Every structure is written in C-alpha cells, then in structure tokens.
Amino acid sequence: MLKYTHFFILLMLFSNLLSAQSVLPGAARPELYLPMLKGKSVAVFANQTSTVGEKHLVDVLIANGVNVKLIFGPEHGFRGTADAGEKVGNYIDSKTGIPVISLYGSKRKPSTEDLATIDVVMFDIQDVGVRFYTFISSLEELMESVITSKKQLILLDRPNPNGHYVDGPVLEKVQKSFVGMQPIPVVYGMTIGEYAKMLLGEKWLTGAVQHIYDSLLKKGKNLLKVVPCKNYTHQTVYTLPIKPSPNLPDMSAIYWYPSTCFFEGTVLSEGRGTTKPFQLFGHPSLPSNLFAFTPTSMPGATNPKLVNQKCFGWNLAADPTDVKKRIANRLNLSFLIEAYKLFPDKEHFFIMPKSGNIREAFFNKLAGNEELMLQVIAGNTEAEIRKSWEPALSEFKKIRLKYLLYK
Questions:
Q1: The dihedral of CA 89, 94, 100, 102: what is its sign?
Q2: Starting from the edge strand earliest in sequence, which strands make up the sheet with 120-124, in order?
Q3: Disulfide-capable partner of 45 in 72, 324, 353, 382 (CB 3.0 to 4.6 Å)?
Q4: Which residues on adjacent β-strands are paired with residue 43?
C-alpha cells in the first residue's frame, strides 16, 4: 500500500510537470481560429511575442491563406525593440509588406477609417499580469474601437507568468491613466483573455461602447471570441519563450517587476541600462557598502535614469531556471521602505510633477492611489500598508472569480 501511495504521488508530480511543459497558448491552436478567418479581411494586434512555435503569428496566417491587411503595434513596437514610453510611428513591415499602424504614438486606438475594410481583428500579445504593464490598456482601447465599428475580435490567450496570485492596492478612479485604467490591484491574477471578459462583464467600457456590445449580445452576436490556452492553470509555472519587452529579459525580472517597478516613480535607478532591469535598483547617494552598479545606454534603454553614474543599492537577480526562487504570492514592499529610510534627501525621493500636485506624481499612478506614497513617508510598516488595501482587494478577488477560464 505504501509503495502504491508513493507511486501515485510520483505519478501526480510527473503529470503536473508534463502539463506545465505542454501548455499551448491560444495562438498554437490554429484549428480553433483559422476557420473563423476564412474569406475575411484581418487586422492583427501583435508584437514580437506573437509566435506559433518558431514562427510569427502573422507569417503563420499568411502561410494559411489568411488575408492580413493591417498590423497594429503596441508600446515597444510591432517587433518589440523600442524603448519604454518611446513614441512609435506608422511604417510598412519590411518582411511582409503589410502596413503597421502604431497604437503607442500619435494615437492609442484604431480609427473608424483603419477598420473600415476589416472584418476581424486578432489580438495576440504576451502579458505579464501587472496593472501598469500597458498591454491591458492597449487591449481596452482596441476593444473600444472594434466594438464601436461592430467588428469581430478574436483574442488568442496566453499564460500569465504572474497569474498565481492577486495583490496590491486597487486603483482609485482619480488615478486613472494609461498605466492603470480600471479598479484592479497591481497584480490581478488573470490571463489577458480573462481580463477582456471582465472588462465586458463588469461593464467597464465607456457607456456607448458597452451599449453596442450588450445590444448585439442580446441578438446572439458576441463580438469577443477568446481562444483559450491548453493545459494551463493559474498555478502553472510557465517560462516565457520570448522576452515580453526589452526591459523584462528573463523570468526573474518578470517575477520582481510588480514589486520593483514602483522605483520608476522615484529618483532611484530601477535597473534600466543594465542587464538586470527591475532586479537592480539604487542611487549614487545611498550607502556605498551596498551593491554597486552603473546604468549605461543600451538597446531598449538608450537614456536610462542615472546613466553613467555609479549607484549603490540592491541586487535581486536570481537564476531564472530555479522554480524555487519564483517570487512568493505577494508584493514585496520591503525594499521600497528600506530605500526611503536610507535615502538622505527624503524630500526628493519621489519624483514630483512640475505642477507640484502630488496627485499627479507618477509614483501615485503606479500605486493607483496617493496613500502608498504617504505611508512610506510616514514610516508605516509593510503589514500596516497591506492592511489598508482591504476591503477593496478582497472585493476584487470575488469579481475576478466570475471570469476565470482556468482552474
């Protein structure tokens, strides 16, 4: 009996490992979406992560006779090489000859003219499950345009590497911006397909757009089709095959990003301009006995904060192949709190806007409220700060459950 129990446990462990290795994103299931594209004019919202095995989704579609007429590109561009925040213009993709329209430059959503000759819009981008990672904002803007034009949206879902937990302050409406558009926590624990369903189910789109969607839904026409992942659950440890953006180069960066991106709202370097962005952070005025590094100009970070200045701070870089080093199921505020305590010029720790209005500080847009900054300044403990996230965080978790596609 004991041997049988041991065998059963080993079998279950092997099954879980096999499942994690055999996860298929929606794009890798063409049998589910190619039939919907037959005879249709198609636009694709994609970047460098939009792959089917070793091939780009656009190449796969073209090889299967799909009429791809337009490509829309998000932050970092269609090929994923632009700096964070860099405005990208329109151009013709050199490989395919297809026009690329940037939705992170002069405009953030397709125009009616862009979609006039399009029947179906496909969305396929690797998200990392963090509110201020702007791809979910791009998705929302895209949904607004597609629904207004009464077009079909096919979303090819992908695993969320931070989909195993939910944590952080819930965004307050006054802090709405492109780095946070909806009342969700910093880490929301949903795939991008689940998130799209929540946007519609909670009626978070603008009133006129939501009315169009709901009216068509009553007539039996659902404009959103999510092609789900296969063999994925919210506890699956999924290693991204392609870095989702220039400054998230490995899994360690992706796991730390929800906690260390807050440093973007401070005068400290968040590690851009190094080989370990969001894993190194510091400042020249911090104690010199801390870890030393120097940000330099490099692709994806051509003008990083504190460029060519020796900084002292922390090194959180971990072996991305070591699953045990996967970040625990919560944000880590300890480094932010400690950095503020050690910083000599506390009045200038947080970057303030020219207006002097604290509400407009970028840190507060990342946090989703003004409270976190004030709590750090006041010397509140991490436990005290976490307590203030309730009951909003628990309420969000209840909402989230309604839209999960995976265990």
A1: negative
A2: 91-92, 99-102, 67-73, 41-46, 120-124, 152-156, 224-227
A3: 72
A4: 70, 121
Token pair listed for 123: 């969305």
- Entry pTM: 0.90
DSSP-derived 3-state class of residue 39: coil
Assign a CATH topology to domain 23-227: Rossmann fold (3.40.50)
CB of 137 closer than 8 Å to CB of 181: yes
Q: Using a pLDDT cut of 90, give the percent of the chain over it.
A: 81
Cα–Cα distances (Å) from 209 to 114, 156, 317, 325, in that order, read 17, 22, 44, 43
Vertex 277: Cα angle to 274 and 279 (nearest 5): 115
Query: Six-digit token pair at 243?
Result: 């870095």
Q: Residue with structure tokens 């005290």? A: 384
| CA–CA distance, 109 with 138 (Å, rounded to integer) | 8
Supply 72's token pair.
Answer: 């829309």
Q: Where in the chain is the domain with CATH 3.40.50.12170?
A: 23-227
What is the per-residue DSSP string for 128-164?
-SBTTSTHHHHHHHHHHHHHHTT-EEEEE----TTTT
Neighbours of 138 (CB within 10 A): 23
| End-to-end C-alpha distance for the chain, whole angstroms | 30
Residue 6, pLDDT above cutoff 50: no
The amino acid present at 363, given as its one-letter code, is F
d(CA 338, CA 340) in angstroms, rounded, equals 5
Distances (CA, A) of 210 to 136, 144, 245, 395: 17, 8, 31, 23
- Amino acid at the residue 390: E
User: 110-127, pLDDT tens digit by residue?
Assistant: 999 999 999 999 999 999
Q: Is 44 helix (H, G, I), strand (E, B) or coil?
A: strand
CB atoms inside a 10 Å sphere around CB 23: 18
Q: What is the pLDDT of residues 12-25, one digit of tens each?
A: 444 444 444 599 99
